[in-house]
Amino acid sequence: MSSRNPERKQRLVGQDSHLSRIFLLLLFVVSAQGVTPNPEACLVSSSVNGSSISCQPPAQIPHSLPADTIFLAVEFFNLTQLPADFLQGVPNLQELHLSSNRLEDLSPKFLLPVPQLKVLDLTRNSLTRLPPGLFRISAALCTLVLKGNQLKFLEASWLHGLKALRHLDLSENNLHSLPPGLLENFPDLLTLDLSNNYLQTLPPDLLRGPLNLERLHLEGNRLRVLGEGLLAPQPKLRYLFLNDNRLASVAAGAFRGLQKLDMLDLSNNLLTTVPTGLWTSLGKAARNLKDGFDISSNPWICDQNLADLYRWLVANKDKMFFRNHTRCSGPEALKGQRLLAVAESH
């Protein structure tokens, strides 16, 4: 059989890379009425729920907004600052997109006029911190996107006030570490994206707040070890991305309890072997790993220490991505051979 379709895997990896855009499409059915062709004016459209406003250069940013505004996008303006009262007069705002500017900081009072805000997208700005108290009345906020900023560290207090958070994207920052207790107040969190940072270790209690986490993105960091208890609090986890790290060690019980896992990506790490029992809980349930797994581009040493993995691979080979790129790096007699072929010969 040929390898599973890599394009399908790519779609799975990118499903929530533009979460805020998905909300845009789902929340609003915009009528054509009210759209102006003037290139210096923002695009204004109306729905039964309220007004939606989208501003990009060369449009001029409006000084005032319709009182019924529920969607606002001000993007690609290279703004470094926004006035504290920028959102005054739009108490029903539900989505705010400020991506691709150069915002360096926000006023602690910035979100006070919009207590119903559900989506805040700050992608690709220059934020190095968040002001304490920014979210103190943002109990309705469910999606926070901070992708592509310049955050080098986080403080748990920055997120205080968020009570309904379901999607948190901190990818493509400069994070080297995370504080303990960061997620302890987010029981409803479904998606956590920490990909493409500089994380070498993770706090043992990182996931002890969320109760329903479904997607965890840790790819593109510098993680070396996956310990015993990190994932234990997450029995509902479905997608786990650990690819493109420096993982050389995975604890035998690292995946224990992940009975609903649909996809696992361990590709492009430094794994030469794995402990007996690692795969025990994976691949058995009817839905388990139904979307596949990837262990390619690791320097596997194909000896008797992989016997447990060999048996598991043969039983689950129909779920395996990139078989041709999953090869032995040793011993010398097996160097370059496909790992699955070696497994099937045992």
UniProtKB/TrEMBL annotation:
SUPFAM superfamilies tied to this protein: L domain-like (SSF52058)
Signal sequence extent: 1-34
Record GO terms (molecular function): type I transforming growth factor beta receptor binding; type II transforming growth factor beta receptor binding
Gene Ontology BP annotations: brown fat cell differentiation; keratinocyte migration; leukocyte adhesion to vascular endothelial cell; positive regulation of angiogenesis; positive regulation of endothelial cell proliferation; positive regulation of epithelial cell proliferation involved in wound healing; positive regulation of epithelial to mesenchymal transition; positive regulation of keratinocyte proliferation
Origin: domain of life: Eukaryota
Keywords from the named record: Leucine-rich repeat, Repeat, Signal
Stretches of the chain forming a coiled coil according to its record: none
Family matches, as InterPro entries: Cys-rich_flank_reg_C (IPR000483), Leu-rich_rpt (IPR001611), Leu-rich_rpt_typical-subtyp (IPR003591), LRR_dom_sf (IPR032675)
Gene3D superfamilies: Ribonuclease Inhibitor
Domain LRRCT: 298-346
GO cellular component: extracellular space
Listed name of the protein: LRRCT domain-containing protein
Organism from which the protein derives: Ovis aries (Sheep)
